[in-house]
């Protein structure tokens, strides 16, 4: 287990980067605590795998350092970093049995045979492959092979960190849920530092203690699922987290009031006079569809998703979403919306602006 420090870290795949846009991973300075589980979350191409490969030693950064427990490992090999990494697509030895595949990392380090047998049995049970332990890996399905790969990554208890690069891509949905649960149990039991790359917010939010949201090569927010939901520090976090994501609406802000197309809203906090690209953000859960008061909207459609209804509406030519309770009747004369001022955020050039208490 290790505390992982990213010190002035950045990476470009160009030999002579000319500017910030040439960097796939823009400058990062972060400390990730020993023993916590992190998820790197973001859309394809945002830099998640680049960062993971730098941490593992598969990629050398263009600038900066990476430290494990304050020891500089920037130039250390993957083996010397003492990490385990599981990749998106299964890497197994087809001619070996499942048991020998799982045992290989331990045998390679000279572990006691009794410990190896016990640990392999434990991992085999964890990944649901006890019955296949003595079968050869050749001929197994892709998801079975990925389970072996996952198990081989988890079999060592002495690693500094466990790194997972979208490991459940080829796993069937039910097994995904089981393996996520097992990974969380493993983390609670052994306290490994874990870093899990995914573009799936459900995977990230159910697995991690802290979610590291990346956008355009940057870490835009590190927080608990609750923090990401309630106080997105960047509009991308608001869009990406939640289903549907946060409503982001252009506005003019002065003091405690926001002006949206001539309609005034109480923000609950003071912001002064803001310039630049100013927007307000509010989760659909904190928008109410009403009649007679609030901002005028045109309801486009209502989607009943079982636990609640999602109302798709038009606000001054801007699409917004409203989450309503399943049993709430929605009539034609409900053509106004109100926003809860306690859950409105203000953004300037996409970044959260912290207001002063009223």
TrEMBL record:
PROSITE patterns: ABC_TRANSPORTER_2. Signal peptide: none annotated. GO terms for cellular component: ATP-binding cassette (ABC) transporter complex, substrate-binding subunit-containing. The keyword Protein biosynthesis does not apply. It holds the Pfam family ABC_tran. InterPro entries: AAA+_ATPase, ABC_transporter-like_ATP-bd, ABC_transpr_FbpC, ABC_transpr_MalK/UgpC-like, Mo/tungstate-bd_C_term_dom, NA-bd_OB-fold, OB_MalK-like, P-loop_NTPase. Keywords: ATP-binding, Cell membrane, Membrane, Nucleotide-binding, Transport. Residues 4-241 form the ABC transporter domain. GO terms for molecular function: ABC-type ferric iron transporter activity; ATP binding; ATP hydrolysis activity. Belongs to the ABC transporter superfamily. This is Carbohydrate ABC transporter ATP-binding protein (CUT1 family). It comes from Pacificibacter maritimus.
């Amino acid at each position: 287990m290790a505390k992982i420090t990213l010190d002035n870290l950045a990476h470009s795949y160009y030999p002579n980067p000319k500017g910030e846009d040439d960097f796939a991973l823009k400058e990062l300075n972060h400390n990730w605590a020993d023993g916590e589980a992190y998820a790197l979350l973001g859309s394809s191409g945002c830099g998640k795998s680049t960062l993971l490969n730098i941490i593992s030693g598969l990629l050398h950064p263009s600038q900066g350092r990476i430290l494990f427990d304050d020891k500089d490992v920037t130039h250390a090999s993957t083996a010397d970093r003492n990490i385990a990494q599981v990749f998106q697509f299964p890497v197994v030895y087809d001619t070996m049995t499942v048991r020998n595949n799982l045992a290989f990392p331990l045998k390679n380090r000279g572990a006691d045979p009794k410990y190896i047998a016990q640990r392999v049995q434990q991992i085999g049970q964890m990944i649901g492959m006890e019955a296949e332990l003595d079968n050869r890996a050749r001929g197994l399905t892709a998801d079975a092979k990925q389970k072996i790969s996952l198990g081989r990554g988890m079999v060592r208890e002495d690693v500094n960190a466990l790194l997972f690069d979208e490991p459940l891509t080829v796993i069937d949905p039910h097994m995904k849920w089981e393996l996520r649960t097992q990974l969380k149990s493993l983390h609670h039991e052994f306290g490994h530092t874990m870093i899990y790359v995914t573009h799936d917010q459900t995977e990230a939010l159910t697995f991690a203690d802290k979610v590291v949201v990346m956008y355009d090569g940057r870490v835009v927010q590190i927080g608990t699922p609750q923090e990401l939901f309630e106080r997105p520090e960047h509009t991308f976090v608001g869009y990406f987290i939640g289903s549907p994501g946060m409503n982001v609406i252009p506005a003019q802000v002065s003091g405690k009031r926001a002006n949206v197309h001539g309609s005034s809203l109480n923000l609950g906090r003071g912001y002064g006079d803001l310039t630049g690209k100013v927007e307000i953000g509010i989760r659909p859960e904190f928008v109410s569809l009403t009649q007679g008061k609030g901002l005028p909207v045109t309801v486009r459609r209502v989607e009943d998703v079982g636990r609640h209804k999602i109302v798709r509406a038009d606000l001054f030519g801007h699409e917004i979403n409203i989450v309503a309770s399943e049993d709430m009747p929605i009539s034609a004369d409900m053509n106004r919306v109100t926003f809860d001022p306690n859950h409105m955020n203000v953004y300037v050039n996409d970044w959260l602006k912290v207001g002063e208490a009223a």
